[in-house]
Design goal:
- The radius of gyration is 18 Å and the shape is globular.
- Helix 3 (96-106) crosses helix 4 (111-124), helix 3 packs parallel to helix 5 (140-152) and helix 5 (140-152) runs parallel beside helix 6.
- By secondary structure, it is of the alpha/beta class.
- The protein has a single domain (2-232), classed as Rossmann fold (3-Layer(aba) Sandwich), CATH 3.40.50.300.
- Strands 6-7-8-3-9-10 form a six-stranded mixed beta sheet, with helices on both faces.
- The protein has helices at residues 40-47, 70-80, 96-106, 111-124, 140-152, 170-187, 200-203, 220-223, 226-232; strands spanning 2-11, 14-24, 29-34, 55-60, 63-64, 81-84, 158-162, 190-194, 206-211, 214-217.
- The protein contains nine helices and ten strands.
- The structure holds adenosine-5'-triphosphate.
- Adenosine-5'-triphosphate binds at residues 11, 14, 16, 34, 36-42.
- It comes from Chitinophaga defluvii.
Length: 233
């Protein structure tokens, strides 16, 4: 579904990504782990079209995302990708329901349909009684669940999460991880998650380990190791 081919990223003579290949399938939760500075966030941002690679291509099904520019790229990103960051980035002047609706309104979907889906998602995420609260009246875990609902509003092909539980205590982090697995099981939702969390990574469907700008394990298809593919499935 999402395929990255030979991705490189250079900042003048700093080679941050050195030829990364990835294929992510629908309904998979893929985690990207590795030491600080290995290139995880850079890779996630490139996969999510938030950053451009120096070389290589990112494809979503049969669309070459790397070739898209300007408002077309923004439209495709808003419609097919959801994002969750370490800090929720909810807009303080809007309540939970309104925050979740915003990417749906930007996508041009009928307002009533967006509101209905936002309410459904917030209810699914256990926030039925919190929909009209502004972010500052929500706990950290609740704020992050609103951010998850916002990421899901346009029914994205893939959700990219960069340290989504990095700012949560262990109980709230565990609850959010369980939510990702529920969303995968119920809706076949695909996630790519950069994480340092030692509980989440081993539970994911596939753990890609990055070292010094390369994926060094977890990428059975890249390595062509049939036995790894069989173990994973
Ligand atoms: N805009 C930039 N300009 C120059 N160097 C950058 C830029 N963005 C990232 N880097 C460098 O690229 C390398 C990889 O950064 P990246 O944030 O992808 O690492 P990471 O694996 O996500 O690390 P962490 O776990 O600490 O978040 C680092 O050496 C970083 O300093």
């Amino acid at each position: 579904m999402l395929t990255a081919r030979n991705i490189t990223k250079n900042y003048s003579n700093l080679h941050v990504l050195k030829g990364v290949n990835i294929t992510v399938h629908q309904g998979e939760i893929v985690t990207i782990v590795g030491s600080s500075g290995a290139g995880k966030s850079t890779l996630l941002h490139i996969l999510g079209t938030l950053d451009t690679p120096s070389g290589g291509e990112v494809w979503l099904d049969d669309v070459n995302l790397t070739a898209l520019k300007g408002s077309l790229l923004a439209d495709v990103r808003n419609k097919y990708m959801g994002f969750i960051f370490q800090f929720h980035h909810l807009l303080p002047e809007f309540n939970a329901l309104e925050n979740v609706c915003i990417p749906g309104f930007i996508a041009g979907t009928a307002k009533s349909a967006v509101r209905e889906r936002a309410a459904f998602l917030l209810e699914t995420l256990g926030l039925k009684d919190r929909m009209d609260h502004k972010p500052k009246a929500l706990s950290g875990g609740e704020q992050q669940r609103v951010a998850v609902a916002r990421a899901l509003i346009n029914n994205p092909a893939v959700v990219m999460a960069d340290e989504p539980t990095g700012n949560l205590d262990s109980k709230n982090a565990r609850e959010l991880h369980n939510l990702f697995f529920e969303l995968r099981d119920k809706f076949q939702q695909t996630f790519i998650i950069v994480t340092h969390n030692e509980e989440l990574a081993p539970l994911s469907d596939r753990q890609l380990v990055m070292k010094d700008g390369r994926i060094v394990s977890g990428n059975a298809e890249e390595n062509g190791a049939l036995e790894n593919i069989i173990v994973e499935k």
